Description:
318 residues
Amino acid sequence: MSLVSAGADFRGPLASSGVAEPSLATVGDYIALMKPRVMSLVVFTALVGLAVAPGSLHPVTAFTALLCIAVGAGASGALNMWYDADVDAVMTRTARRPVPMGRVRPGEALAFGLTLGSFAVVVLGLLVNWVASALLAFTIFFYVVIYTIWLKRSTPQNIVIGGAAGAFPPMIGWAAVTGSVSFEPILLFLIIFFWTPPHFWALALYRTEDYARAGIPMLPVVSGDASTRRQILLYTLILVPLGVAPWAFGYTGALYGITAVMMGAVMVALGWQVLLESRPAERASRNLFAFSILYLFLLFAVLLVERGWGGLITRLTA
C-alpha cells in the first residue's frame, strides 16, 4: 500500500518565504502550541509519581516540579508542531493547528519551544534536583528528536518506540521527590508504554487515509487493518497484567486491584471487538480509543487516591 500521495514530499517544517511578516498569533494560539490536552495527562501522571514516592517535598518545591514538567511538555508540543507543520497541513485532524493555519510562523514555534524547554530543564535542576531535570531533558529530546524527527516518518513502529516519551512523567515526578528511580516508577512507565500502541493504533484505524495522505507510515497504512487489529489485541493482552502489577507486587490495595482487573477486562473485550471488526474499522476502534483514555485515567486516579493522596496532603501541609 502506498504511503504517500503522488508527488507528495514531506521532509520537515514548512518552508519560510524569507519575508518578514507581522505575527497573527494570539495567546490562545501559543496555548494550542503546547498541546494542553496532552499536557494535562502528562501533569496528572507526573503528580501520581510524585505523590506515591517515598520521602517529603516542600509544597513550593512540589508545585515547581509539576510546573516545570508541564512547561517541558508544552515545549515538546510546540517543537512537534514546528517540525510537523507540513504534514499537519494535509491532515484533517491537525490542519487547523496554529502553524499550518499561518497564525504562528514556524520560526516562532521553534523559538517558543526551545525557550520553554530550556526554562523547564534549568529551573527543575536548580530548584528541585538534577536527576529529575535530566529525565525531563531526555524526555523532551526523545519526543522531539527520536520520535518526531526520526521515527514518525520512517517506521510503523513510531508509536511503539516513541511512546516512551509519554511514559516518563511518573518517573520524573518520583525523581523530583527521591532524586532517584526505582522499580515502582518503572512499572508505571511500562503501563503507559504498553498502553500507547493500542490507544493510538485504534485512532489510526479510522484515520488511515489521513495518515496515508500525509505520508506517515502508521501501522494501518503500512501493514493494513487486519495486522493492526491483531497488534492492538496483543499489546492490550500485555498491558492488562501490567496494569494489575502494582497491586500484585503489593504497592496498592484492593480498590486499585479491583479497578485494574475490571477495567482491564473491558480493554480486552474492546480489543477483541476491534479484532473482529470488518473493514472499514470504525465503531469498535473508536470505542477502544475513547475507553483507553478512561482506563489510564482511572488506574492512575485510584492509585493517587488509595496510595498517594494522603501522603501528598501530609507533605503539602507539613
